[in-house]
Amino acid sequence: MSATPPPTSAPVRFGRTAPGIPVRDIEQALAFYRDALEMTVTFTNGDPVGFVILERDAAELHLTLVPTHRAGTHNVAHLMVSDAAAVHDRLVEHGARIVKGLRDHDFGLRAFVVADPDGNRLDIAEELSHVLSTRPTLASERRADEPLT
User: Fold this and answer.
1) Distance between first and last Cα of the chain
2) 129 has a pLDDT exceeding 60
3) 3-state secondary structure of 93
4) What is the side-by-side order of every strand in the sheet holding 59-65?
5) How far is it, in rounded angstroms, from Cα 29 to Cα 96?
6) The whole model's pTM is what?
7) What is the pLDDT of residue 17?
8) Which listed site, 30, 60, 84, 133, has its alpha carbon 20 to 30 Å from 140?
9) Nearest to 29 by CA among 1, 49, 14
10) Is residue 146's pLDDT more than 90?
11) How far is it, in rounded angstroms, from Cα 83 to Cα 75?
């Protein structure tokens, strides 16, 4: 007796994610996400409001009121942007606390970490592939067996 193979199905495609971010004060959080990050409120729930959806381009964040929330030391969201330096500068202008400064990483991202008013950490980054592909390889970046070009 032979076993019948399972039917072949189309591969599952995942879409964007929308991390839920706990906050102690919705209005204070909105001043950061709406005003400093220029996100748009697309949905609110509750009276008083206890849940907010914010969007900007393809990014979406969900703020949830948790009066007893205490932030950890981990990043709660990773936002990819087209110009990390511009976002960094805007956040500094708005008095945001930069946890890790803006810098280029050897894994191809220009990134920094900022804390929202509740201490939630956001990793904000820009891909550097367009920059890395146009600059010459430095001697310190070549493998020992790689020929000089």
Assistant:
1) 62
2) yes
3) helix
4) 20-23, 59-65, 51-56, 40-45
5) 12
6) 0.78
7) 84
8) 84
9) 49
10) no
11) 20
Pairing of the two strands 75-80 and 121-127: parallel
pLDDT of residue 140: 45
- b/e sequence 68-105, b meaning 16+ C-beta within 10 Å: ebebeeebbbebebeebeebbeebeeeebeeeeebeee
Indicate the residue type of 39.
Answer: M
Examine the pLDDT at 15 and tell me if it is beyond 70: yes
B/e letters for 123-144, b = 16+ CB within 10 Å, e = fewer, are bbbbebeeeeeeeeeeeeeeee
Q: 136 or 116: which carries more pLDDT confidence?
A: 116
Q: What is the CATH number of domain 20-133?
A: 3.10.180.10
In the chain, where the domains are located:
20-133
In angstroms, the CA 19 to CA 50 distance is: 16
What confidence category does residue 10 fall into, taking pLDDT thresholds of 50, 70 and 90? confident
